[in-house]
## 1
Amino acid sequence: MKEKLILVGNGMAGMRALEELLKIAPDKYDITVFGAEPHGNYNRIMLSPVLSGEMPFEDTLLNDRQWYEDNGITLHAGDPVEHLDRVGRQVKTAGGLSADYDVLLLATGSTPFIIPVPGHELQGVIGFRDIKDVDDMLEASRDYKKAVVIGGGLLGLEAANGLLKQGMEVSVVHIGDTLMERQLDKVAGKLLKDSLEERGLNFLMEAQTEVLIGDERVKAVRFKDGSEVEADLVVMAVGIRPNFSLAKEAGLHCERGIVVSDTMQTFDPKIYAVGECVQHRGNTYGLVAPLFEQAKVCANHLAHMGIAFYQGSITSTKLKVTGIDLFSAGDFVGDETTEELVFQDASRGVYKKLVLKENRVVGSVLYGDTIDGTWYFQLLRDGTDVTDFRENMLFGQHHLGDSGHGEADQLALLPDSTEICGCNGVCKGDITSAIKQHGLFTLDEVKLHTKAAASCGSCTGLVESLLASTVGGDYESAPSKKPMCGCTDFTHDEVRTGVKENELKSIPDLMKFMNWNTSDGCSKCRPALNYYMICAWPGEYDDDYQSRFINERVHANIQKDGTYSVVPRMFGGVTSSKELRAIADVADKFNIPEVKVTGGQRIDLFGVTKEQLPEVWADLNAAGMISGHAYGKSLRTVKTCVGSNWCRFGTQDSTGLGISIEHITWGSWTPHKYKIAVSGCPRNCAEATIKDFGIVCIDSGYELHIGGNGGIKVRATDLLCKVETEQEAKDYCAAFMQFYREEAHYLERTAPWIERVGLTYVKEKIVEDNEGRAALVERFHESQKYAQVDPWAERVAGKDEHEFKPLQFVPTQKAS
Amino acid sequence: MSNKQWLEVGVVEDIPRLGARVVKIESGDIAVFRTSEDKIFALRDKCPHKGGPLSQGIVQGENVACPLHDWKIKLVSGEATAPDEGCTASYPVKVEDGNVYLSLTATGA
């Protein structure tokens, strides 16, 4: 017999917990759901667009009745649970139903707070919480003219905006002097008030409601100062209160909510709770993102996996009023220990404030230009030291050079036809409608459904901002602890540490030890794990070639038609007549359709079939050439200029240095592709300042530059240091490469890695720590002993022979 | 189907575990996959998305990730996994005494 799980509360948090549970333990429980509202689970976040008429209610349904049926879940909607008997492990509903449980999940949500002023029970006085409230408001807007919204917070303003759109005259009553004072400072609050007034909203600030006047239906609101305002509808939006009366009456420990531990367990081990009704480490939450994090943790424990912990959430807010861009997060007021960075442009209506404490972001408020809100929020949650780029921070991350998105800094104002994802041709309207229609909450879900940000990723920030502005503060932003992929809850860093500390030396061992939830992993985690093993155990680990992408498995680049391209290595970009003749002969012999010079000073042969690869390599090997690794997450090329050998400006032998550096570094596997260049003078013809590691020769020695990138997002290098001798330049090169190999996440290039960990940290380890640097150099050379084997020669000699041969040829007549 | 013609294409060990091999036919290549549990499947070697060679993808569970744009295709049916939509032909396969037999009568789209 399966255990019985009962969920009380058919809302977003509880249902999310069930969905997460079904993903990891679909057959564990016999599940029954009780809900007070007579619907399936709907997307409460989208009530504002329903009210403003931008979306029909049906589109907000996340789980329709069919879904419950398909998953074998019994649903009792419209029949609230009124009694909980913990000793008998039974719940009873208002309608007289009773049901037994083995495990109970409480997700009873919250109720809007109604100020108990005289008249609060009159007709036409409501909260803003569920679809019934929205229906009441829509009905009132048809029959009446004047609405008063009490509360100038997030919810109140969304309600006011919706009623305005339905044609009512709306006054917003606010007790404080700043709108949304929990999210905005005075300046941003004023900007918001001005633009809402322009749209036709009326504001009564610092007004304290004393009494609601009316006989049967409300007619007016009177304030403490004696003034009055007419009202046919009063919406109270002054806050929500966790709804925990059921739990409290059953004797569960409650304070401001149902008190839960980090595993979402209440004081009764048979009872878990998630959502707005809980109090965790003294906090209650009213936004969806934290509730979803709770749901995931709770599901993990309901499935008896027992490895997840909820450690609280930092939340951010966006206002869902079309055309208004506003973002806030963290401590945006600050105190004597903090400092502020402020940008203000009144005529453009832009205001940005960042609050820093010890060079880390602790809060932000953005108005008018919120495109970087997600970036600031990420910095906040990661606790990134911003010393190295604080002078440019207010201009935003895109200021550093996102290609192809131009001036897209005021997202809300862009027309729906604006192309957001240039790789896959996805427009703003496609993304926002997919978010609404499919009830998407995470960036990954948006990527899956729309393909936006799913290729090169340069529009990720834009897509995340669209997600945030469409679902408000309730989107599930990338969690601060980001799992490697869907197969595990562990982060890249945790996996790397696990590999080392537990001496895990094969992918199956690791997956078993770290509780992977899939048997084979996936195309995301397997290549990463394979790399981490190679890096941790040089010479010991057996490369798992089925865990490599096709390009690294067959040592050539797959092209769109399924043929491959072949790039032989030319150390330092220097070749010879002998090599060129061999390449020409290969091109003729195999009828290679295209021969092209690459950006990294190499020659690329296109259109080679897979079966031809070993023969092509054999001929190139015979002329002394080896694989150029143009296909790998590995050292690609060392680009050079001619330097002092020929150039009248050259200060050092940049060509010679480049060649010897390529001899040192070729064959090395890295988290992502890795490019080096050496320029012979500050004119920098080899473009060394957009490479992962760049050397610019000067008269007195060598400038070493790191973390450059010329691709999706141009990033000029940071100067690491200057050194005097060639040997030092080579050592620093090896040390930096090894440090990157050991510390970066798989598929993270040096540029984002340095922005994540900070230049100061890298300098500490490479420049200031002589012993540490020497150890890195040694580890690099040790690892190179095993890495510098030409993969082409190995395969010419017969390795992985099956890879290049069809299993079978079928004669034509047999095909049907 | 009673009139199914079975074609012997090799032994199970010819196909790398978590990998694939190609059967070349004039009408288009067929990819033959082997999962970690040694189950064998055959699909037309063409992703329903942009025609990528599925035989070159990474096998995970009973799906293969296309090497071109990482669509996940079901080995059992040739269907793309949601939310992607599309289907490539799948072919019946049987294993007897370690020999792999393929039928060239497609069952999928």
## 2
Amino acid sequence: MDKTVILQLKNITKKFGAKIIANNNVSLDVYKGEILSILGENGCGKTTLMNMVAGIYYPDSGKILINGEEVIIRSPRDAFEHKIGMIHQHFKLIDIFSAAQNVALGVEGEKFNLKEVNNRIKEMANKYGFNINLDKKIYEMSVSEKQTVEILKVLYRGADILILDEPTAVLTPQEIRSLFKILRAMRDDGKSIIIITHKLNEVMEISDRVTVLRKGDNIATVNTAETSEKELTEMMVGEKIDLNINRTEPVDRKLRLSVSGLTIKNSDAYKVLDNVSFDVYGGEILGIAGIAGSGQKELLEAIAGLNNYESGELIYYHPKKDKPVSFFHKTYRRVMELNGENAFKDKKGNDIDLRGMTKKDVKEIVNNEMVIFKEDEVIDLKDKSPREIRELGIRLSFVPEDRLGMGLVGNMDIIDNIMLRSYRKGKSVFLDRKRPADLADRIINELKVNTPDSHTAVRKLSGGNVQKVLVGREIAASPAILMTAYPVRGLDINSSYTIYNLLNEQKQRGVAVVFVGEDLDVLMALSDRIMVLSDGKVTGIVDARTTTKDEIGLLMVKSDKNEVKE
Amino acid sequence: MKKKNNLKEPFVRIVKRDNIKVKNIILIYSIAVIGGLLLSGFISMLFSDKGLFDFFQSLFEGAFGSDRKFWLLLQDTTLLLGASMALLPAFKMKFWNLGGNGQILVGCLSAIACMFYLGGKVDDGIIILIMFFASVFAGALWAFIPAFFKAKFNTNESLFTLMMNYIAQGLVSLFITIWVKSGSGVLAPIQYGNIPDIGNKYLLPIIMFSLITIVMHIYLRSSKHGYEISVVGESINTAKYVGIKVDKVIIRTMILSGAIAGLVGFVLAGSINHTINTSSANNMGFTGIMATWLANFNPLIIIITSFFITFISKGMTQVRKTFMFTNDSISNIVVGVVYFAVIICSFFINYRLVFRKKEKEEIKK
């Protein structure tokens, strides 16, 4: 690696509002022909810093130098003039244009000649090993293909410095590997590549040097070869931290939920879930892997009673065995319904038949807890609304992906959010805020929610604390099934591990935990079994202890249409 | 290097305030009110030879000048309060009910119809009882119709409720034509079914709508229904997620909203006007929107905003007389100026301005 400094940032500071300091006096050198990782937790200012290089933001103070000369970058166009190109996390492509059209779009000073554009792109593609069909329209492309177009777009404009914002977040392990191959080829060609990431293993694999940011400060820049994941984590978090997820063997596995042949069509009559079948057991964590939008959301929402489905069965096994009939089953009608299947015994173990008894007698027996369930109660969840599910006494907790849009109400305080699940309890027309307030204080204490008090609006909390409130509430309902969708997305490392530990704790208590995740490393370390969804279909259910990332990666892209390619 | 840094920091930046003390909020509003009134005074002076002192004197005289004026101020304040309480639950649910006028008007119409058809045939007490239920029912029905379509077909509630106003006005015109044989289009006050005075003739609405305000405050804050209204208003997805029947809440809340509006109509017809015309609702369906928004949907603060709005309009009537404005356009402008000052000051409660540092300081560095 030759040591020419191509890009220099000097004492860059950027503030948002009075309190938020996104970057504080950050200085950074980038060499020609290297891959530099910018590592840091969510919200530490990685993307902000690079957005200033790419002309999206303008720094409050500090200088940017390219090849030793100070430059002013006010817009992405200025950035291109200085041969800087950024590939953003959310792609900026035009869906109905082809790859080549998107690449050529907006390049000034040359006549639009698609043939020539095609040739030039092909040349570049061959040079670095891209594999792409230039005539394909963007809307027909997979995420990884779209990313390739974005990279080509930047290269086509002659960029020598490429910035990639979380490029691997949406890719399968196989796609990541081929991306890394391309990045290495570009580096060897003398280009400088900056990767923004929070994934340690990728940092170790791909980069030459790592710059660690923490809360807007540049903590250190080190050579990758001279550091370790552990050291980097400590720099990132600022303290020593145990990165092991303590996975226990499942105990007392009991069938809790059985899904069979579930099919859901969206408003375009497209099957977002196609004949999905699986079982969920108490005492284990079932991981669900898949490319974003493969039907994970619809699946969980269907189980929670929020989605109507075309066909299929959802059978819930209500933990009841050897428990007295009580609480939720006190209505006469419900008890008699259950009794129809001869489901009860008395305390001595003899079968008991309530049929033919008067309402009064049945009520008395039930109230005295003299009737006991023989087996777990079988409940068909088909076409049950969330309210009906709750009224049946089914303890199904759900931490949805959209925390503030579905799980919580941002403008309400913690107490009012805590009672979302339970406010209906009791016959009074008035709310009981006393018990939710106690629960809120307990959750704040136990999960170390960082908040001034329980009267603070939830939207004012940081992402990690919002999630703690939500997960805390769902766990407080002592669920039999706990479904979580991307529960650590956007969370810092400490909060993430708090959540993992909570899920493990629930598993040990016999709760059936469903964990929809995106980080395969975490899925493999936390789950007992992993179900892989691809385009709405279950492509496999594997043992998390023995599977490999490659195996899951292949299942993630497996489909009837295109053959799986390695 | 010749390229000079020609991108300067903007001259003024808007920065969001994180926390603002209640004291400062009151201060900002007071400045806005006083500033708005002063400005109004100056504008009025431009069109007349009277001075600023006369302006303020007439303003207060119009509102507090005599016992009768004072009682009228209270009565109109509470009527507006009633209209605002009708709108409030709907607004809390983010259901933009612009049909307050129509709902009040059908309430009036039902009451007058009872008075017209039953008057002299049955006892006044019974007429009043029937009037009460008819008004409340009519108001509720007028609100139920758009709510039903919103809940089932997701129609736009603002347009729908707005259009219902015109239907209500049309109905009033129609009935006046039927009832008034002379063709004058003016219905003479009806002597039957008049609600008897309690204490004096202004007290009924004052007591009734003050009570409703307190009840509404408790309903929204501490009842399960009120809680559901807030959740539905904030996020329909969350409401569905926790199993709230959104359709039911929308319809239920709008029926309540319309019923209170109908009640306002009942009081207007039975206790105050004893007659009806197309503008009997006195535009309270819209002024109520302003009272509600200015108070940031807090029922107790709506008492203040209703009072303020009524005070300004009463006071300006007097100013108009003193300043000898022959039409009401100037006083309307002046009222607009005051409202405008109050409305823009809410900007300063959420944001503050930061000006660019002096150029020289930058260079010194």
